[in-house]
Amino acid sequence: MKSKRIFKETEIGKIPEEWEVRKLGIKCRIKNGKTNSQDAVDDGVYPLFDRSSQIKKSNKFLFDCEAIIVPGEGKDFIPRYFKGKFDLHQRAYAIWQKDKDVDLKFVYYWILNNKDYFARIAVGSTVKSLRMNHFEDFPLAVPRNLEEQFYITKILSDLDLEIETNRKMNKTLDTIGQALFKHWFVDYEFPNENGKPYKSSGGVMVDSEIGEIPKGWHKGVLGNIIENYDSKRIPLSSRERAKRQGIYPYYGATRIMDYVDDYIFDGEYILMGEDGTVIDERGYPILQYVWGKFWVNNHTHVLRGKEEISLEYLFLLLKNTNVAHVVTGAVQPKINQSNMNGIEIVIPDKTLISRFTDIVSPLFELHRKNAEKIKLLSQIRDSFLPRLMSGKIRVPLGVKHNA
Question: Are strands 293-296 and 265-266 parallel, antiparallel or unpaired?
């Protein structure tokens, strides 16, 4: 019969009796970087971890090791785990191995579980910052048994590996979809009646106001092919959302902002940023491909395709359409509905869109399944993390550990 675990009170709350609390600076090496943000280069070969969690590029490296990287400024001091050569901003911090009786990945998950601690102790009124002493004095509770550290780490890292595998697969699916769309509708190399690339096999091209296009295609505007559901949007203030916490995602212009107790949409839609962050650095629209039951605020357009225009085709079309010229507002960038509807596009033969949809819809379906799996695994990981890092879930010992 397994004995009941005994807990003891410490400065950071209850921990198992056989664990110890030590300062992070005693158990690990800590160092900040030397590089400024302006030193980043577009063609750099090494990741440059910025002071606010962004990853840029550098042609030099300051570290070549396995390390935990924590931003030195911001609101959410979320750590990263990295192995290899990297550069580091002077206001970011690297934490790496010092004592062999502490597993570095255990330290990473301990910091991740206690990231709110850093947010509380950060200094500054406008921009919250961390100093070296904040890391050196950070209380770290660790099992004295290294094997227990390994098993806690393995449970969490296996979940993270599965999450990352699914994310990479979705990135690959997105790349395939983009490549197919470009081949068919940008390069005009869709399969002809003989299965050969249309344009390079002598397909008939005709002049238009926007350049040469395949015969049977025509110039149009985005408003010709989209259904707009903006009138159904209902914004909720942060105070209202706090009172209505639930399971349904509440979308803003770029991301899920909250979860609420009801929904106004059910199905598959495209969200295209209306104001705020509306384009990326290259001028392409900020898009979200969403499905299921959800709520939307008034900072993003809610779109579907008309008639034969599939959601998959519309999403990839928008992904490949530069919209910088329709953005208005210097302080608050905006793509209003009129300007969006007037974006010039080439409208292909509807049969061709149907053929394309038959090919790419399985990619989108797999993307959705992977995304749902990522969501489930993330929920499991987030549920396990605080219980494993407090010793409330016990791990099996005495079995050979494979690192």
Answer: antiparallel
Integer Cα distance of 27 and 107 in angstroms: 9
Q: What was the pLDDT predicted at 347? A: 95
Domains and CATH numbers, the chain: 7-144 (3.90.220.20), 164-376 (3.90.220.20)
The residue whose two tokens read 């030195």 is 72
Question: φ and ψ at 149, to 5 degrees?
Answer: -60, -45
Cα(118)–Cα(138) distance, rounded to whole angstroms?
A: 9
The reported pLDDT for the residue numbered 398 is 61
pLDDT of residue 401: 47
Residue 2, pLDDT score: 59
Single-letter code of the amino acid located at 289: Y
Residue 381, C-beta contacts closer than 8 angstroms, at least 6 positions apart? 156, 159, 160, 163
Which helix (H) or strand (E) segment is 241 a member of? helix 238-243
Q: Give pLDDT < 70 ranges for the chain.
A: 1-3, 398-403
Query: pTM for the full model?
Result: 0.88
Q: What is d(CA 173, CA 367) in angstroms, rounded to the nearest whole number?
A: 7
C-alpha of 216 from chain center: 40
* Cα distance between residue 15 and residue 71, in whole Å: 27
Listed in sequence order, the residues at least 6 apart from 351 whose beta carbon sits closer than 8 Å to its beta carbon are none
Tokens of 375: 């969501």
pLDDT score of 79: 95
